[in-house]
Amino acid sequence: MSISKISPELFHKLVGLAALELTDEESAYLLTEMNHQLSSVNALLQVPLEENILPTLHGIDCAGAGPRTDVWQPFPTPGEILAGAPETEDGMFAVPDVKGAK
Amino acid sequence: MSLNQLSAQEVTARVRAGDLSAREVLEASLAQVHAVDGAPGSLDQKPLNPAEEQKVHAFIRLTEDLARQQADEVDRKIAVGEDPGALAGVPVSIKDIFTLQGIETTAASRILWNFKPPYTATPVKKLIDAGALILGKANLDEFTFGSSSESSAFKPSSNNPWDPSRVPGGSSGGSTASVAAEEVALSLGTDTGGSIRQPAAFCGVVGLKPTYGRVSRYGLMAFSSSLDCPGPIARNVSDAALMLHTIAGTDPKDSTSSLVPPSNYLEALKEGVKGLRVGLSPDYTHLFYPDFETGELAKESIQKEISQAVQDAASVLAELGAEIVENVPLPNAKYGIPTYFVVSRVEAASNLHRFDGVKYGYRTPVDVEDLQDLIRRTRAEGFGSEVKLRILMGMYLSSEGFAANYYQRALKVRAMIRRDFDRAFDPQGEHRLDVILTPTTATTSFKRNDVFGNTVRMQYSDQMTVSANHAGLPAVSIPGGLDADNLPIGIQFIGPDFREDLILRAGYAYEQATQDEAWRAVRPAVLRQEVTK
After folding, report:
1. Domains of chain A by range and CATH?
2. Which residues of chain A does B425 touch, with a Cβ-Cβ cutoff of 8 Å?
3. Looking at CA atoms only, how far is residue A52 from chain B in angstroms?
4. What would the mean pLDDT of A41-69 be, rounded to a whole number?
């Protein structure tokens, strides 16, 4: 049985969607590894699925603490958060222009 | 016996009794770090001299000043008769994936090299409130992505104290190495596919992955949110039980933290294993490794000494009165890694979108055209190869046209893995197990650079551990002997939901019954060197 592979074209599309940039060497390595991983993942296609099996997002029933009440709570020290930002302006995060925004 | 060899329980008992001050314990720990650890992990990758090659390198950052403040506070409380907490004076390392307010928290990634979180993770806060001394942040695989700790951006990555030319396992490799090298008594790790248990096995220490939701994930930087579990690492089972009791419990800041109250795990240890039903499965005796061309899974035998250690452990437990149940079918365990490749990568890709150089952490220093260019360049420079690989794989497997075949199918196989365990533990079922005994890993520790770069082979080192993550079940790895190269072997107990007490009981009974075996007297190589100096 031969298995499907990720094409270089699809790979480069994914790189763009993932907001990444890669060197040629990095691209070659990562595409090879992705296809090797895919050969493992393809084993799932051979699994005889049991009847009435439903997909699960968690192994156990997550009847946990549950979501908090949706009430606005100001962070006590916003200055600490801003102090960690690469660039700020007037108490806000500063970034370059968004393409086409002007 | 030096102070650094004491268990956490011995340390805290002596500190509370006034036989020792917390400051004395801390200074002994720091002296040990300075003797065996060498240079901490750093982004400046300098060549190592031969002496540094032999060091452990468990830490990215020591937090000596913080630990001294904590020690003084413990000593002050004892002086005035206040309760100093259940872990008073116990030195602890923290995997550098948990936030600690005001202290750099890097996830071993360049993209967070300067990130100082404005809040502390819940399990870390619980350790501090219990009087533990936070000695430092331990190295790990970048964002926990790996099984050898070699993918850390902070070099040198950690070495195995039993043989510094070998890896400590991962991703909690700095944590397990720091405990094995007697730099700390306890460490806080995380386990998504085996990242506490596999390095615990490689380093000859105890590592426990609790039931999903048993310990809060608040302040843990997410890798795969449906699988991530914080948990304890210790040198013996009862210390792991004590630490678990300290960090477990409901947390309103983590919606998936469980409302089930924690047991008294230390008390449970005394109950022994008489009458406990311990399962052995033929589905945990081989690796199932893919052929890269055909995708067929080929059977590979696991290291014979490890299979033998599991059999020997079963015999020990049987002599103590446990009932050994053989041939328990867990047929979907062999799909654990393929399923993990899908579930963990899809969740990782989602979780890693937040790192963009805007709000915190690294930002590219080069001139950029616009915001999109800034984000691309920051991520390109800030993330290592393994992180990029997981993002790309996750995006591919969840993309339109592929998700039905891969992601949806993986979620169904995950449910089948869980169903296998439900059948094995069913009190009305054929096997009615209390715990399942398996190897933790297929091999003992491997040499640095032997596997790194081969991302499939690296991932398959988690085959024996990953199914407990898919199923959400608690599992513990404990030392089960040494191989011919004096490298530690780990054996694993898996239990039903929230029955950490059962796996700890089984581990403790085995540990106590094998106390006098010759292999327990052998010490890690870095500690043997220390003695001969």
Report:
1. 8-45 (1.10.20)
2. none
3. 10
4. 84
